[in-house]
Each structure stands twice: as C-alpha cells, then as structure tokens.
Prior knowledge:
By secondary structure, this protein is of the alpha+beta class. It has 4 helices and 7 strands, in the order E-H-H-E-E-E-H-E-H-E-E. It has helices spanning about 25-40, 50-70, 115-130, 145-150, and strands at about 15-20, 75-80, 85-95, 100-105, 135-140, 155-160, 170-175.
Amino acid sequence: MSAPQTTRPDVNPLDIHLRPAQARDEAFLRQVHDAGRAWEFEMLRGQVDDHLLATVYKQQYGAQHDAYFNAFTLAKYAVIEWCDEPVGRVYADFRDHEIRLLDINVLPAYRGRRVGEIVIRGLCGAASQQRMPLTLQVNPLNPARALYVRLGFISQGLAGEGSPGAGAFIEMAWRDPLTTPEHIEASPG
C-alpha cells in the first residue's frame, strides 16, 4: 500500500514579498538559477563530468545576468520571500510601453504552491494600472509556459522571427482588456 498523497497548501499572497537583490544574495540567486535551468540540462546529467556541468551553469548564470542588465537598463532584480524566507527570484524591466518579465524562478521545494503565480499576478496588476502589457519570452519546452497560458498570456509569435537563431523562444503578452486593449484606436484629430 502506498503512502497517502499529501497536498502542499497554497501560499497566502500576503506572505509573499519582494525585496531588492543585494550582493549578499549572490549564492542564493545562483542556486535558484541552477534549479530553474535543470530541465534544460537534464540530458547532460550522467553524460558529462559534474565539474563541467557546474561550469556550464556558472557561465549561463553570468551570461544571463550580464545580458539582462546590459539590454534592460531599467530592470529590477528581486528576491522572492515567503514569510521572510528566500524562495525565488524575479527580473522585471519597467519600460514606457511595457513591463517585461525577464525571468522568474522559484526553488523546487516551493513550486506548486502558487508563489510564482502570485508574483506574476502582481506584475499583471502593475501593468493594468499603467495601461500597458506585461510581456515575456519563453522556451517552448519550458514547463512554466503552461502557467503563462493559464494566467492569460497570449502567444505573439516567435521571438526575433526572420533573424538568425529565431524561433528559440515564444513571445507572449498579457493585457488587461479593460485598460490595455491590443489595438488602441487613434482619436480623430
């Protein structure tokens, strides 16, 4: 007889807080990054030396961090906390025409409890208030894609179509239909 299945309770949204990431968070942020990218590198596990895999993760972390802050100069980088315990990270860029969700990741032990959903819904609320879309890019194989669809993100096509390497990511957008219609009609002038 197998053990009964236990469900993990959802997180109370009032217990989730974001705080700016600081230099002292670096080891934790790398841990979250590595856990979030594990699905991409799973096929390498057992086929390459663990030291080589650790090197790949470290290079990917550095490249991602540098790319985000070089391309998205208005980005905010935060630690997601649940009851003052760090459980994830989020990068978001606040532009004049959109809020861009660059990356969100929650440690595996805290997944399935709605932590990421709460943070994303908060960004949706901010986008609605500012009358702009919340946009993101997602790898078609990323398990988080199902969450984005469930939250109402709509595919806008492949990122960078027509450019070399295009098609690696799907561009998605969320809009509040009451504040941010897809096409805003120009007023007669």
